[in-house]
Amino acid sequence: MTSGLKLPSPRVPDPRSAPVLRWGVIAPGGIARTFGRALRARTNQELRAVASRSLERAEAYRDEFGVEVAYGSYEELVADPHVDAVYVASPHSEHLAHAQLALEAGKPVLVEKAFTRNGAEARAVLETADRAGMFAMEAMWTRFLPHMDVVRQVLEQGLLGEVQVVAADHGQKLYPDGPQRLSDPALAGGALLDLCVYPISFASMVLGEFDSLHATGLLTDEGVDAQEAVTVQNAAGALGLLSASMVSSTPTTASISGTRARLEFSGAFYGQSTLTLLSPHDEVLDVLEPSDREHGLHHEIVEVAACVDARLLESPLMPWAETLRVMDAMDAVREQIGFRLPGE
């Protein structure tokens, strides 16, 4: 019987209860501004420093968010003794160099997703973190949202029965009129690292290790991926049906279907989504609405603070092995659709 099934409550701590870190921000672009807004509005964390190759850009960010100091080089920021942790918000092509720069200076890092361009670079960053004894985490902010804690509990408790199918899509019309970096192979552009990383990471969280992966896709005239469809399967035979596109807008929904029940995500599944638990006969068993419709980066920010305070090298919610699994899966997608990054 499924009629008595109910969704558990999220166990996410109050973001303002976390230990306070003084943050430095590398590369004050769009996602760094989202980071700054979330930190200022929803946490007690402090913005100590910001750095850009353009001092003028760094100073504009400093003035917008009340940062203490702006630097015209990344080396100056990581050398600042008052910076406790560094957020790497540069394009994917720069993550390796910027993360290693901070780690080698003795700074824990939160590196914007996708963690690096490929699995080899991800391993290089994590080897540096391990050697330096420094915390490092991929900024896959979705993993830290309250509704994803509910998903983890649902899976741990077996409320869906045996998981059979996971589906997720992420499409935004960002090409050809969106950010120029998405068109540029040298900046690791394309849909995969910006958009498909969400469905793949979601499937990895639910299914665990992929035993097989098959992908098809379309490349732009510049040679980056415009869209892809990916199927994965785990050792138990459960399937993942995943897709992403930067040339069209898609519903950005997700679902997890089991032998006992189905969990559906409405709204953007990777954001503050509504969860609906349904029986095999589509009877609505329970609904969980998000208590907060804001972007949600504050949850990953305070996860870093809690882990650093506990002297951990990795987050239990986004461990290094998980980041590597997702990066390796995206490497396999690019290999199958014929998209190689410069230097590979």
Query: What's the structural domain tally?
Result: 2
Decide which structural class fits the backbone.
Answer: alpha/beta
Ends apart, CA distance between termini: 53 Å
Q: How are the strands ordered across the major sheet?
A: 8-9-10-7-11-12-13-14
DSSP E strands, number: 14
The succession of helices and strands, N to C, reads EHEHEHEHEHEHEHEEEEEEEHH
Radius of gyration: 20 Å
Helix percent band = 25-40%
> What portion of residues belong to β-strands?
15-25%
Describe the main β-sheet briefly: 8 strands, mixed
- At the fourth level of CATH, the homologous superfamily of the largest domain is Dihydrodipicolinate Reductase, domain 2
CATH architecture of the largest domain: 2-Layer Sandwich
Which descriptor suits the 3D outline? globular
Which fold name corresponds to the CATH topology of the largest domain?
Dihydrodipicolinate Reductase, domain 2
SS summary, helix count:
9
Low-confidence stretches: none
Instruction: Provide the residue-averaged pLDDT.
Output: 96
CATH class of the largest domain: Alpha Beta
Walk me through what this model shows.
There is one protein chain. By secondary structure, the chain is an alpha/beta fold. The chain has two domains: 15-141, Rossmann fold (3-Layer(aba) Sandwich), CATH 3.40.50; 142-292 and 315-337, Dihydrodipicolinate Reductase, domain 2. An eight-stranded mixed sheet has the order 8-9-10-7-11-12-13-14, covered by helices on one side. A six-stranded parallel sheet has the order 3-2-1-4-5-6, with helices on both faces. The chain has helices at residues 30-42, 55-65, 74-79, 95-104, 119-132, 146-157, 191-207, 297-309, 320-337; strands spanning 22-26, 46-51, 69-71, 85-88, 109-112, 136-139, 163-171, 212-219, 225-233, 239-245, 254-258, 262-266, 274-278, 284-288.
